[in-house]
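DM from R.C. (forwarded with permission)

"hey, sorry to bug you on a friday — could you get me a structure for this? deadline for the figure draft is monday and I only need the backbone to look sensible"
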Amino acid sequence: MTWLQDFSLLYFPSRFALSWTQVVTLGLVVTAITIPFAFHAGPVLRFIWHCFIAPLGDKGDQRAALEKFYEGQAEVYDKTRNGLLRGRKTMLSLSAAHMQLMQKDLPEKKGLVWVDIGGGTGYNIEMMDQFMPISSFEAIYLVDLCEPLLQVARKRFATRGWTNVHVLCQDASTFTLPSWEEGANPQGSVDLVTLSYSLSMIPNFYNLLDRVDFVLRSSTGLVSVVDFYTSGRNPSLHSQSIGGEDKTCGWLSRWFWQIWFDLDAVHLGPARRDYLEYKFGTIKSYNGRNRFVLPLIVRIPYYIWLGRPRDCDTSQFTHAFEVEGGNTVGNCSPRSLASSSPVLANSIPTLEIGSPLLGSSTVSKPHAKETLIDIVPPLSSFHYQVKKEDPAEDMRHLRLTDRDSMFVITSAGDNALHYAIAAQPKRIHCVDMNPCQGHLLELKLAAIQSLPYTDFFGLFGEGKHPSFRQLLDSKIAPLISSACYQFWRVNSSSFDPSSSFYLNGYSGLALRLAQWVFWLAGVSGDVKRMCEAETLEEQEQIWSKKLKPVLLNGLLVRILNSPVFLWNALGVPINQRQMFLNEGTASNFIHDTLNPIPSQYLFKDGAYHYLLCLLGHYTPTSCPDYLTQRGFDILRADDGKVMDAFRLHTDSIINVLRGLDSRSITRAVIMDHLDWFSPGSKEVEEEVLELRRVLSGGGFVLLRSAARNPWYNEVFIKAGFRMDVLGMRKGPHRAIDRVNIELPFPFRSIQSWFFNTYLLRQLFLVPFCSLTFVMVGINDLPVEILCMILDYHRGDTKQLKQFSLISKPLLFVCRRYLFLGMRIMEPIPSINRSTRSWRRILKRSPYIRSYIRTMELGPPIFRLLAKHHEKYSQHWTEVLTSRTPSIDSDIMCQIMASVHGVEKVTLRFEFQSWDNYSSHFKETVALVVQRRSVTCLNLEDSVDFPLELLSSSSSLRELSLVSVNLSDQASSRDSSPTPVSISDPSEVEKGESAEAFGQRGRIESLLLFNSDDAVKQLVHLSRPSTGLDLSGLKRLSVNMTGVDGRNALKLIPTVARSIETLELRMGLNYSGLDLCSFDDFPTLKSLIISQSFNQSERHPIHKLLPFFFKTENTSKLEDLQLHYRCESPYANSCEMTQQDARRLIVSAEWRRLEACLLWNQHLDGSGSKFNGEPDTKYPLLRSVAVVLRPDDVAPFMTTNLEASLNVSLTGIVPRLHKATNIRVRINNDRFEKYL
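My reply, with the result:
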């Protein structure tokens, strides 16, 4: 003890001398600190030694290098990588959520197979059990080349007792599963492949990804990757569309991290990720930065990526995006740029689907007084977390039904959801240029479908949720787009419990300012009391005495009137600000807006717009309809069926309108967005015209404005709309709705009232009794139609005073003369009354052009009624012998060039040679045939028509050739597409550009009648080097009378192998059936044979038997229709009685056909029993129809078409009914399509 004291005196000055008790205490403290540090520092030191100090093995031998690198740190690998390898948990959570969703709708539940490539210690597999039970997988394979890490994995799996997890020490680029070695087909045998920080370490990554693509199941396969990366600037549309936010790395970051990781044979170049995104379709993509060491300095870029094989079926989504959503190629290009001028055409950049808007400098120079707001970018946050329009007031005027299609501005999506709940319309197009607004609505739709009501109200009612990140990854992510997921992953703090979603973004700035003002003025408690007030009187008293002096003071009004604050906090641009300042001061506007609300609407039970502004959140009793339990249940019912109506667009309104079909929208709600434009803006005129085009009859536009008389009212009226003011704020005493900010104006399409039968039917009960009113209201109608109305009543003044615009006569006129199309079919060619009449109609009422969908040009030479044949035969003789067409070329060209939206075109050429027509007429016909809108083309009675013009018909889907004759000279000419010279560029329709030429038309339906000469040229045009595509042909109709149709049956199947419906019109001799068999049509599902018969031949079926027996292979035929038509010129003799029909069905010929269809065997000699066992070659046949009717010409000769053929076939052919359950029916064709 003395020695210790001396020792202390020897080594320490007296002021530092320690007693023995202090030394022991200090030792215990140091031990307590050192032991935990040593425990944690050990793995870290081992990690540092092996990663940064110890020499690497031979880099030429990858396996040896990996084992040397990980051998000393395998046991501590997981402990030292949690901070470095970020994103693994998120990747697994996303993968599990997507797998469960894809497996949910599978008709057959198969065992799942998961391959974890480069899984090392099995950490990923153990973690996956938190999100998706390991027992739900049939087999899990961990593939890795490093044996030390695999030893850790085997111990881990043995501890957990998992028998379906298998560890394979193999090279990832050539991995092989045990089931493949046993003979199983590897293609499509794997459901999930994950690569966690392993893709960057595999040298031969091309072979790996190709192998993964081969073994993944095409329907439900998923590949998930998380890894480090580097990327330069990549402004491609593909990168933007899949969520390229924060993908770009700075030059210094790329240079440093590539060199740093390359020292450990980890390659961060962009090639791996680029090939990954090229090989697979992207589902989710997130680009993050790892800040686990020195967060402000060290930021390692990493990404999380999920994808699917590109051969998976996306037809449903493509149809929803392109057809239902109107996202067609070319709709992003302003129509003002469409021109035949090569100089202007070259200045237009090539656009892809999803491309951003053209810059303003490309479109036009801005007006001098116009303020341009560039919002692509920097709108990286919200301007509107809540809609400032009252949807309940909108519903009073919209009168929505489930048949309506809507066009609305997205904003926060609250109003669109309200419309869906209240009326469940057929389609709701939500449009917004700010992508953040679309992401918000997309999140709401996905959350409704995936979350319970309590979580959903927590997110969007209270504006906060403690587990938003977890909900996003495990529940919501599978239902949102990649760009939307990346946005909400980056902004996941918006729903932090410490704040509120509605206090974020630009609009949250205004709410935070209001709360700060209330706190500064000491009225925060009064705000809460006003929001909880039970009566309007109590609420009004608190407003008048406490809050009104605070909110309407001069200083705050000046802040609210600031252009900077109005735009950044309230989303009010400078042009809209100027509109309400032109009609008063900012103080008056704010006073008139806010003052009436507390005395009319109770915040606690309905006026949720201002309750949110005051509290920063909603309450269960005062919230939008979609946040109520009732609204939530309606939206979620039937697996979200109501929400299928939504189509989201992140684009300008004009671009979206261009992509929509004409007359496809019944209600357009565009809010106050036209206030953003400066007076006289050309963009407003173009948008109004597009709205006019897409609106159906009876449709209207509902808009709001901050001004009482906005300048663009005249633009709507000039375009043919009628304006009704639904509400106008006239002072501070009465509110127009629960928001009381903007005035609603509905603009109804006047002209479409007269030319759309849908609206006429809808408003059939609306009384217009005054004839004077009728005549004033229809002064825009063509004179010819007014004359038709007057002629209909034959001068009956009393009757004329009774009917209205929406009564039967006008309905008949509109349907007969407008909606069935434009018909120029004057029987007497020399008169041309129809041609001149149509020219007068189009000249007087040009707006009719947009409604015409069918164009039928040319007289029906051989389609006249029999009683008129002799009367007109002399005129046809003169036409055919004079070699001069009777068509007035100039008038016809004017009509054809002026009708832009035509979809079905019928051209008859009077059997005149194509060379006999004028060059101007030829050019016009070429432009009509090649027009984008044309999907159906009928060519009739032509000689030497240049079929090569069809090579440029890019939208053509249905083609009919009737009596199309080609001379030997025309058949041998070059069939390569020839550009058409356009003498007058003004004749080209708007929106038509040179890009329309050269695209391939994909024919789906082809009819050939007396046009066998044209078949060879059609087949020649179907070469890949030309523009006509017959490979996708689904329906083929051929006339087989005489020698007609032989070329069609021999040549068409050589280029079209996907025909599903074959229609053959046979004559009495059945010639041509020997040229084809079912083997020529491997995909045939429906066969329709029309046969001629006469009274002496009672059993024509036997002529078809060789055709059905001739096939060598099993047929996919599902439907068989046999049509029998009489060749007798007398209609009465064509009527077949029920006894005749029964005799036909029970005949021996029918039994032979039955034997062919069921057993593929002939009857024996007695005709009483079958030889052999059932072995049918038509196993899928489920429908047989026998149609007995007069000949095609009979309806034009007589009106006596009645024939009753009610036969109970279950009693006649019980064997056929019981054996295959084929539905056999006998139909009575009443020729409705002819009458």
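R.C.: lifesaver. Residues 522 and 546 are 10 Å apart (CA to CA).
me: no worries. The chain has a mean pLDDT of 70.
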